[in-house]
Structures
1.
Amino acid sequence: MAETVDDLRAGIDTISLPPVKGWAPSSKPPVRIFIGTEPAQQRAERVLLWSIQRHRDPTRSYGIHLMRELPGFERSGWTTGFTNYRYAIPELAGKRGRAIYNDVDQVYLADPSLLFDTDLQSHGFLSVAPGDPSVMLIECERMSDVWSVAAARRESKSTLLARSVEQPELWGRLAPEWNARDLEFEEERSKLLHFTALHLQPWRPFPERFVYQAHPHAEVWLELEREAEQANYQAFDRASPSIRFRRRLAEVTPSGEDDRATGLAELLDLDDSAAKHGALPPPLVAHDVALRESLRATAGRSVAIHTCGGGRPWRRYVEAPSGNDPKLEQRWGASRIDVFDIAVSPAADAGRAAAVVCCGMLERMPVEDLPWILQRLFASADSLVHAGIRPDPDLGFGLQRAPALLRRTQDWWFEQFECAARQRPAVHWQLIFQTDGGGFRLREGGRHLGTGPPRVWVLEDDRPGNTSQSRGLAEALGWPYSVKRLEFSQGSRLHNRLLGASLLGIHRARSSPLTPPWPHLVIAAGRRSAPVAQWIQLRNFGRTRLVHLGRKGGDVAARFDLAVAPTYCRLDPHPRRLSLGVPLHNVTQDRLNEAGAHWEEELVDAKRPRIAVLVGGWSGQYRLDAKVARRLGEDVMRVARETGGSILATTSRRTSAAATEAFCSAVKGAVQVHRWSADAVEEENPYLGFLAIADAFIVTGDSESMLAEATSRGVPVHIYSIPERASFRWMRVGRDWVYARAHAWPKGNRGTFRPQRGLEYLCSRLIDLGFVRPARDLTRLYEGLMNSGIAKPMGEPFEFASWVPPTSREAVAERVRDLMGYRDQS
C-alpha cells in the first residue's frame, strides 16, 4: 500500500496535452485538472477527456490527473468509489497553484481554461454551492491547511466540507454555467453539463445497482461519444499505457521455469477438471470447433496468438504439443501460427494474420487499457478475432448496492467487443465465455463469415399483428427465411420469468419442428414466443441472434440481441432496445400494387375521394360494442356526404358480431362493406386493396397495427377514438402507480435528482425484470402521429394532402443487417 504523498502521485495516471503543433505557446500557466473516477466509469472518463480535448485552447498546456483507486482510503459511506479523493488535491498538487476538480460524470462544453483563469477573489475554492464540491476551482496553497491526504483518508466528506464552510472566507460561489446539473442545462449558456442523477447516466455504468432511465439531455453526451469514436480517440495507447498496465507487465514477466508440459487447456486458462477425469472440458471443445469452422471460412488461415506473459509456454506448445495432442496447425487447420507477447515487447508491431486468438489475458488487463488492447487485436486481424473470457458472475436482480465495483459480466464483455469492432467492421469476432461448472457460451459479432445469406427463422403465432411484424421485418431484410408455426399449450400462460429458455409453453408435436441446423437469426413477436426463441439460442450455445418485436415479449431487452418496441409502450431505454413511433408491418409496395390492380377494377365506379374505414374491435383495453360501432358508422357516412366521396369499409377479427351488425346497418349505401369472417377465402378480403386505393383513412384508435399500415401510404389518416373498458381502467391503476413511482425522480438536498433507491428502485426493478409491464399509452402514438402531421383526430376537416410515410421498417432492417454483420448488404 502506498503511504506517502509521493507514492500517491506516482500511482495517478496523468495525461499531458501540450500546445497544438503549429500554434504559438501561451505564456499562461498550464491548466491542471484532477478527475475523480473509478474503473466502472471508463466509458464516461473517455468522453469527459474527449470533451476537454475538443474544447481546449490550442495554445495552452493541460495536465489531466485521473484519481482512480487510490490506496489507503476508507470508502465506507461513500456515494461513489472516489468521493474523498478531491480533498487530497492540495497536497497532490504540491500545495501550489490552482487546480480544477471534476467528477467523472461530467462533460465540458467550453474551454476548461476559462474556468481555470476565473478570479478567485481571495477565496480558497469556488463551487456552485457550499455543499456541492462536484466541480471546484481550488487555490491549493490556501486549502492545504484544511484539506490533506491524511484528512481525506480518515474523515467523512461532510466533515471535510463543514470544516471549510465554517470559514466563510474560504468558499466562494462558482458561476452556475460551470456546473449545470441535469435540468439546469441551458444549451446556449451552460459550459459544463453534470449528469448528477446516477440512474439517468446515459453510459449505464452500474446495471446491477440501478435501473437506468432516459436522461433529458442524454443526446449531448451520446453525440460527444460518437465524435470520440469517429476520431478514434483513446486516453491510453500502446506507446503510453496506464500506470496499472505497466505494473501488470512487471508482474507477468515470464519466468525461467520449465513449462514444456503445459497443456492446451491451461494455456487457454480453462478449468481442466474434466480433463483430469479423462474428458475434454467443454470450453476446450468449443474453442477447437469454433476456430476450425471459422478458419475454413476465412480467405487465409494464418493465426496469431496474442498473450501477456504467456508467450514462452505458448511457443513451446506450438512447436511441440504435450502428451498425444496433435500440432495446433493440424488441430485448427491453420497454415501458420505465430505468438506475440506484449509483456516482452509491448510496443512491437504484431503484424497481421487472418485470425487473432487471445485467451486467458484480457480479464487480467486494467479496464482503462482494454480499449487500446482490443483495438490492437482487431487491427492485427484480417478476418477473425477469437477470444476466451472468464467473466465475473452475474449477480442478477440488482442486489449489489454501493459503492459499486466494476463487474465484468458476459454482457459487459459483449459491449466492449461491440465498441471495438465498430472501428473494424470487416472483422468477425467470437467470444467463448467459460461459465460456472465448466460449461461455455459463445457469442459472435462483426462481419458474417462465409458466403451467402444467414439462416433465418420466423416464429409465428396465432396473432395476426405479431405475424405481420415478424414477416414484415423478414421480408425487408431480403434474406430467405423459414416460418416456424407455434401451437401454444396451457403452459404459455405462465410468466416468462418462470418459463425461462424453454419449450414448456408450446405443443411440440403440433408445432413446426425445431431441430438443427440451428438458425443464425430468429425473428419473433409477442410474449409467448420469447421463451422459445431463447431456447433456440441456448441450444446453439448462444450463437443465434435474437430479434424480438413488441412490448410483451421484449420488455426485458437484456435477453435479446435487439428488442424493438414502439415508444408508447413506455419501456425504458436500453442499448439493445430500438424504439419506434409505430409498430412494424408487412404491407409492402409490391403487395399494395398487386392488390390495388385487382380492387381498382372491382371498384372502378367508386367516387373519389375514397375513404377507407378500418374497424377494430374489443381488446383488453378498448370497448367497441354495438353502440360505439353504430356511432362510428353514422359519423363516417356524414364524412362521405360532406366530402362527396365514397366509403370502403371492413371489419376485423376482433369486431364482435353485434358490433358488425350495428356498423353495417349504419353504413347502408356505402360502396363496399366487408364483414370479416374466419371462414372467408383470403382472396375475398379487400383489406389490402382498400389500403392501396384509398385517398384517406378512418381508423379506430384501438389498433396500432392498422394505424401503422394506414400511415404507410402517405395519405390523410383520421383516428376515431374508442372508449377504454372500465375493467381495464381499474386493472391499470396498480401498474400505473408502479410506473409513476419508478419515474418519480425525487429531488435531493441540492435541488438535483437523488440517486434511485428505496421504493423507486423496487418499482423500477419490477418493471426491468418483467414482473410489472407498463400499460401501453396509445395517446403517445396519436400525439406523435398528429404532431408530425401524419394523422388527425376524427372530426377535423379532411385535407387530401400527401407526405412521405415513415420508414421504420427499413431502419430496423438496417440495424439487423449491422447486427448480423451484413453491413451495406441487402
2.
Amino acid sequence: MTKEEKSKVLRSRARFLGYPINQKGRDQMAGWMLLVVAVLLTLIVVPKGGLIPDYHAPGDIASRDIKSPRDLLVEDIPLTRAKREEAANAVPLVYDFDAAAGSQAIKRIKDGLGLLLQRQENPAPTELGEFLPLLEADFGVPLTEEEYQPLLSLPLDHDLPIAVGDLLRPVFDRPIVASQQAFQEQQRKGLVVFNRNAGTEMPPQLLDKATSLNDALADAKEQLGLLDVSEAQRQILLKVVQQQLRPNLVYNEEATEQRRQEARDQITPVLFQIKKGEMIVREGERVTADQIMKLRAIRDSGRDNRNFETIAGLLICTLLLLFVTYLFGNTNVSKFHPDSRDLLFLSVVFIALFILIKISIFIATGMGNTFAYVDSSAYFYAIPFAVGAMLIRIVLNSETALLFTVCFTLLIGVLFGNSLMIVLFALIGSLVGAHGVRHCQQRTTLYRAGLWIGLTNMALVMGTHFLAGRSFELMLLWKLGFGFLGGIFSAVIVNGTIPLVESVFKYTTDIKLLELANMNSPILRQLMMEAPGTYHHSILVGNLAESAAEAINANPLLARVAAYYHDIGKIRKPLYFIENSGGQRNKHDKLAPSMSALILTSHVKDGIELAREHKLGSELIDIIQQHHGTTLIKFFYDRAKNQSDPGVHQVSERDYRYHGPKPQTREAALIMLADAIEAASRTLTDPTPARIQGMVQKLINNIFIDGQLNECDLTLKDLNLIAKSFNRVLSSSFHHRVDYPEPVHIVREKMEAGEKPVLKEKTRIKCANPDRKSADQAPDTETATPEDSSEDLRRLGIS
C-alpha cells in the first residue's frame, strides 16, 4: 500500500469515526507524543537503586538480614583520610630566609648616624621639630627630646657609622627566629629553608647558626658595649638597634600547606572488598559505623550518574530510536498506519510497561536481600517482558508488535546496564508471546502462549548460562524456574489488562469479538425478530466469510462476527428488503427507483449508527461502512434508465452507487464478496457444482473489474482461494437429498379416494434481492412439481 493510499485510509476512518483528518496535524501530534514518551522513558530509565536501607546513626537495630547483591570495592574513607593526614604531616615545614634584611637594617642605622654627623658639622639654624622627623625616618624609631639630646653629643666622626655597622653585622646576618624553642621542635620534624630573594633552597647547615630574637638582641648589646660612649647614649643606640632587629627566618604557612596537599593527593584511596552474598548485617543486631559504610556503598553502587550529560545522551538516543522506527514503519510497513488513538495506546503501554519493570526490579532487589541464597539477578527472569508485545498483537497487528518489541527491548538493555543478554531474553520472549496470541479467540490461548513463553525463557536461560562459560549449578535451577514464571505472569497480566484496554481505548479484540458472536446479544435478537430473512442471510454470509478467511490466513473470527452485524441497518426498514417481505407485495413497486436506491443505501448509515449505539467497536463499524463499497445498485439503475426519457433526463450512475469507501481490509472485502455471492446463490434454479462455480467466478470477476478491491490487500492468489472456499461451502449447502416417499397405507387411501399419489421433489425458491447485484434478476418464482408417472408408483412400491 502506498503512502497516498494509507492517507486515504486514515482519512476515511477519521471521517466516520471522528478522528482528525488533517495528515499534517496527525504527524505533528505523533511527533509531540513521541517526544513526551522519550522524556518520560528517560526519567524512568536514568534513576536506579535498590531497597538497601540507609541507617543514619550507629546503634540502630537491623530489621532484616542484608547480604551484598554484587561484588564491590568500597573506599575506606576514615583509613584513607588517616593515611593522607599522615602523609601530610610527614612533609617538612617550609621556612623563608630573608638574607637582605640585616644589610637593610644596618644601612638604616648608618644613615641615621650620618645625619647626626652632618648636624654636628653644619649646625644650621634648623628647628628641632623639622630635624627630628628626618632622624626618626632614618632610624625607624620614634625619639623624644630627652633621647635626642644625648645623640647630638655622640663623639661622631666619619669612622663611627662604619664601626657600628661592622659591630652589628654578625648579629644581623645570622638567621633570626621569633622563638628558639618552637623552632627547635619544628626542626626535629624536618625543615626546608628557601632564600626568599633568590627562590632557591638553602643548605641545611644554615639552620645551625639560627638564634632567637632575644639572643640576637643580647649579642647586639654586647657589641655596643665596645663603643666609647656614655651609658645613656649606649641605651639609646640599643633602642635603635632593637627597633631594627626583626626575625629573618620565617615560617611559610602557604607553601607548607601546598606541599601537604600535594602529599595528600598522591595517596590513593584505601579500598576493601565486599564479596557477593557476604552478610553485611544480621536481623536484630546493632548496626555499626563500618556496616553503615558498607550499606551505603551497596546502595550507591546501584545508582547511575545522574548528571546532565547522561540524561541528555539517553534522551537523544531514545528520541532517535522512536522517531526512526515510526518513520520507517509509516513508510515501509503496509499495516503500520496508527491513528491518534493507536499512538496514545502504544505510548501508554510503553510507559506502563517500563514502570512495571522498574517496580519489578525493586521487588527483585528486595527479594534478593531477603533470601540471600538466591541471587537478585535470578529474580529478573520472572519479569513479564512479553506483556507489551502480546497486548499490541492482540489489539493491533503483528507488524506494529514487531516494531514495538524492537524499541522496547533495546531500551530495556539500557535499563539493565547495557546488557545484551537481557535484550536477547526480552526480544525472543516477546516475539514468542506475540506469535502465541495471534487470532486469540479464547482466553485459554493466552495461557497457552504464556506456557510457550515460559519454555522459551527456560531455553534462553540455559543458553546464556552456558554461553557465559559456566557449568551446571544450583542457581541455574532457580533461574529456570523464574524464567518459566515470567511467561505465566505475562499471560496473567495480559488476561487482566485486555478488558481494561477494550473499555478505555474502545478497541474490539478477538476476545471481544467472541462476546459479540453470542447470538443472544440485544442487537442480533432484534435483527432476528424484526428482520428474520436478513438474520438468516447474515449467518450464511458469516459461514462463507469465515471459511474464506481461513483459506487466505485472514482473521476468521472478525470475518464471521462482522458478517453477523454487517446488515443490522436493515432493522430500521426491514420490509423494504426482499428477504424480509415474507411473500408480501414488494414495497419498491410503488416507489421511484431513486427513492428505492436511497432506502437501500441508507441501511449502511443506519448500521453505523446502531453499531456506535451498541459500542461494537471501530473494526466492525469500518466493515459495516465498507461492505458495499461503491457498488452499483444495478436493478434500480436499470429500472431508472428504462423509465426515463433519454432526450429529457439523463440518469446518473453515481446516484445509484453506495457511498463507500471501498473495502480497506481483507476482512471487509470478504464480507463484500460473501454478501453478493450468498444473495446470488438464492437465484440459482438448479444449483449444481458447475453452476455454483460459474456464478462465484462471475461475481468475483465483476467486483474485481468494478475496482472495489483496489484498496485492500487481496491478491489474485487470494481471490482464487476465496472462490474455491465459496464453491466448497455453497456446494455443501445445496447438496441433494433423498426424497422420502409417503407410507404405503396413506398412498392406498388416496388411490381409493380417487387421488393420484404425488412424489414430492425438493423445491427451491428464487429470491431476487433488489439491493444486490445478483447473477440473475428474475422475479420470485416457485418451481412446479413434476408430473406423476408410473415410474413414481413403482418407486413407491405400489403396483
